[in-house]
Amino acid sequence: xxxxxxxxxxxxxxxxxxxxxxxxxxxxxxxxxxxxxxxxxxxxxxxxxxxxxxxxxxxxxxxxxxxxxxxxxxxxxxxxxxxxxxxxxxxxxxxxxxxxxxxxxxxxxxxxxxxxxxxxxxxxxxxxxxxxxxxxxxxxxxxxxxxxxxxxxxxxxxxxxxxxxxxxxxxxxxxxxxxxxxxxxxxxxxxxxxxxxxxxxxxxxxxxxxxxxxxxxxxxxxxxxxxxxxxxxxxxxxxxxxxxxxxxxxxxxxxxxxxxxxxxxxxxxxxxxxxxxxxxxxxxxxxxxxxxxxxxxxxxxxxxxxxxxxxxxxxxxxxxxxxxxxxxxxxxxxxxxxxxxxxxxxxxxxxxxxxxxxxxxxxxxxxxxxxxxxxxxxxxxxxxxxxxxxxxxxxxxxxxxxxxxxxxxxxxxxxxxxxxxxxxxxxxx
Length: 429
Known about the structure:
Layout: H1 3-17, H2 22-35, E1 39-40, E2 54-59, E3 63-68, E4 76-83, E5 88-97, E6 103-111, E7 124-133, E8 139-145, H3 172-175, E9 179-182, H4 188-197, E10 204-213, E11 218-220, E12 226-229, H5 232-246, E13 255-262, H6 279-291, H7 295-303, E14 306-310, E15 313-314, E16 336-339, H8 350-362, E17 367-370, H9 383-386, E18 394-398, E19 400-402, E20 409-412, H10 415-428
Parallel strand pairs: 1-2, 4-13, 4-14, 14-18, 15-19, 16-17
Antiparallel strand pairs: 2-3, 3-13, 5-6, 6-9, 7-8, 7-10, 11-12, 12-20, 16-18, 19-20
Helix pairs in contact: 2-5, 5-10
């Protein structure tokens, strides 16, 4: 395997390792953008944008939009959209279940469409955010990450569950509650948060915490052609979008280059920070307002725009070949996946598909086509949702991967670089 592919994969895995929740994803993305010279904007204050500068704005600390104004007259937007969230278990309020004086387990609920079996018997921790009451009476938001092996969802042994290997419907409220300590310890989580943030327990007003897999990433295979880690869906696309954006600063494009990372894709996107919110539309409206465009000018720029909805898709699985479409079988390490669906769950049509294929061909970046098997219901993504808020021609793309929505997913070592370079080529048009 060429070193350039290994390096891009290691860089992605470092980003994922440092981003155990959607809030950490956005904080790390903001740091990357600021280090590249982007200027932070505040939704509560007027936008003041100038030609040639880069900017970013966050919402709910879990979604972020960055954009770069061209030096000359803008002719449209070039947008890469991805999402910051991943399927997991969310920790409920008052989470300790004490079970007498035996063990304390955490009361959790599912977030998104998880593969549940792989969550058993592996080291887990919690990450997210907390809101802390300060001495002056104000409330401060703080990131939380217990950077240790903190809890575990423990299987029932085969001797007490002889049907374990013959198919099983998991019940979160009974079987997927992680053990966190011995004995009965009410208030343990709040105490942990207070200790971590060095505040009084009474000042911890509220938290949003998610479980995450502590297993480190791995590059594997005879030729190091695969890698596995948590949250490949969709942090591979989010990271590639960020990398492409910051590395196109010298582009001569007349487009407003933009990367938009939304939260809550895994639960339908219909939140104030999701792709089905007004976030993207408001940002484009406020750019237009700051630039002094009238409404006709604003819509003419919008009409000259294009979006890549970047969310990973399914590779051919050698153990389940019947799950794949018979004539469109994407493979790991074979290039960017362009996704189509007759039910419009993917927004790619012949026009938008041809536009992107032309860009990728000119840049000599490999690509492949994905359709769902007609008898297998596929998942949704960002593109068809965001275009209900702002109508822009869109193509759905991603990398081919395996074990999607497992806490330890698998993808190709070459594909992060393919994705990043493909997005860079798109931005430069």
